[in-house]
Design goal:
It contains one helix and five strands; from the N terminus they run E-H-E-E-E-E. By secondary structure, the chain is mainly beta. It has one domain: SH3 type barrels. The protein has a five-stranded antiparallel beta sheet with strand order 4-3-2-1-5, with no helix packed on it. The mean pLDDT is 91. This is Cytochrome B6.
Length: 64
């Protein structure tokens, strides 16, 4: 995955707020990457409603 790529949120690893849970199934654009808890990299994804949040790489997948 790379910055500017469209991705879809297809799963959520942990319990999250309702706002983030509502992103499940939504498509957004990767804006940047972020180190997670030392065991991987997460992606900050921006959505059409101008909100952004980060997801683990295994929670999103590229959109064709």
């Amino acid at each position: 995955m790379e910055i500017g790529q469209k991705v879809k949120v297809y799963r959520l690893r942990d319990r999250v707020s309702t706002d983030i849970a509502n992103k499940l199934g939504k498509v957004g654009t990767i804006k940047e990457f972020k180190m997670t808890d030392g065991s991987g990299v997460g992606a900050i994804v921006e959505f059409e409603d101008n909100t952004a949040t980060w997801f683990f790489e295994d929670e999103i997948k590229p959109v064709d």
